[in-house]
Amino acid sequence: MTRRKIVLASLCALVGLAALFAGYLAVETRARAVLEARHARPASEVQAATAPEAVAAGRRLAVAAGCTFCHGDGLAGPGPGPASSLRSPNLTLVVGHRSDADLDLAIRHALRADGTGELAMPSYAYAGFSDREVAEIAGYLRSLPPRGAAVQPRLPGFMTRLAIAAGRFKSQTDRLADARPPLDAGQQFEAGRHLANVACGQCHGSDLGGAPGLPGPDLTVRTYYSRAQFHQLMKTGEMPQNVHSELMQEVARANFSSFTEAEVDAIYDYLQARDVRLAAVRKPAS
Q1: Exposed e or buried b for every residue in 12-21, given b needs 16+ CB within 10 A?
Q2: For 177-216, how does the pLDDT look when each residue is reduced to its tens digit (9 = 90+)?
Q3: CB 90 within 8 A of CB 151
Q4: What is the tens place of the pLDDT at every residue in 83-129?
Q5: Is 18 part of a structural domain of the chain?
Q6: Which of 32, 135, 162, 235 has its CA at 20 to 30 Å from residue 9's CA atom?
Q7: Boundaries of domain holding 229
Q8: For 114, how many CA atoms within 13 A lie in the half-sphere containing its CB?
Q9: Domain boundary among 162, 193, 213
C-alpha cells in the first residue's frame, strides 16, 4: 500500500470514529434530556390511611395491581418483572423518606420526588386509582417494617438510551399523557372497568386495546372464554385450547389470584360488555 493510500485510509478511519463519537454524544445528550427532564408536581391531598382495614385493603390493591412483580415479595425489591433490570427500589426502606404526596406522585403520575420521570412505573394504568385507594396503598406501605438492603438504581443500558433518543422508547410520563381510559360500558359495569384498568392496563394498555411495546393484546374475551374459563385464567393463568403464556401464569398466580370471585365476575362482565360495544362500532355499514 502506498503512503498516499495509507494516509487516506487513516483519514477515513478518523472521520468514521469522529462520526461514531458524535453519534454517541447525540444519543447521550438526547437520552439525558429525557431522563433528567423536570415536570410540574400535581397537587395531592392524599394522606396515608392507617386503620387496620385500610391497610388490608391497600395490601390487596398492591398485590392485585402487580407491585410485587417489579418490587419483589414483601416489596423489598427487585422482583421478576421487566423493571427488575433497572433495579426496582426496596419500598420498605424508601417509604420512610417519602411524603404521602410523593407516594401519590410516583403511583399515579410516574414522577419522582424531584419531578423527574420514573422509567418503568406503569402510571398509565395506575392513574385510575382513586384518592382513597392511593391512601390505602400508602397506608400499607407505611405499615411494612424496614427489611433487606437498599437497592442501588441502575441506569438504562445503551440500547435503551438509544431507543429513548430515537423516540422508540416512551417515558412513563409520555405514556401517561397519551393514555386513554377503557371504554365506558355503563354504570353497571363500572366496578369491573375500574379493576380491569388498574390490574390489566399495564400489559394490555390503558384502554385495554393493546399497544406497541406492551406484551398484552386487545383484551377480548367474548367467544374466547366462558365465565368458568376466565375464572381459571385469573387464578392460574391457564388458557383454553392449550395456549400458554408464562407471563400470564406468573402474574395470575402471584397477583390476580387475590381477586374475589365477585371481582373476577365484575371484570368478566365488563369485558363482555366492552366487546359487544366495540363490535357494534367496528361493524361495517350495510
Answers
A1: eeeeeeeeee
A2: 888 999 999 999 999 999 999 999 989 999 999 887 788 8
A3: yes
A4: 445 668 899 999 999 999 999 999 999 999 999 998 888 999 999 99
A5: no
A6: 162
A7: 182-279
A8: 5
A9: 162
Distance CA 103, CA 83 (A): 18
Do 191 and 99 fall within a single domain?
no
Q: How many angstroms separate the CA atoms of 143 and 132, rounded?
A: 16
- Following DSSP, what letter does each residue of 100-140 receive, concatenated? HHHHHHHHHH-B-TTSPBPSS--HHHHTT--HHHHHHHHHH
Which CATH number is 83's domain given? 1.10.760.10
What is the DSSP code (8-state) at residue 285? P
Please indicate, yes or no, whether residues 212 and 142 belong to a single structural domain of this protein: no
Question: 103, 130, 162 — which closes off a domain?
Answer: 162
Place of cell 406497541: 212
Find out whether 144 and 59 touch, Cβ atoms under 8 Å.
Answer: no
Q: What's the distance, CA 240 to chain centroid?
A: 26
Contact, 49 vs 55, CB < 8 A?
yes
C-alpha cell belonging to residue 73:
415479595
- Both 192 and 251 in one domain: the answer is yes
Residue 224, amino acid: Y
Number of domains in the chain: 2
Q: Which residues pair with 111 in a beta bridge?
A: 117
Residue carrying C-alpha cell 418490587: 71
Select, from the ranges 61-70, 166-175, 235-244, the one with the highest average predicted confidence (pLDDT): 61-70
Q: How far, in Å, CA of 74 to CA of 71, rounded? A: 8
The strand pairing partners of 11, in sequence order, are none
Residue 270 pLDDT > 50: yes
pLDDT digits (tens, 9 = 90+) for 218-244: 988 877 899 999 999 999 999 887 778
Question: Are residues 135 and 231 located together in one domain of the fold?
Answer: no
DSSP 188: G
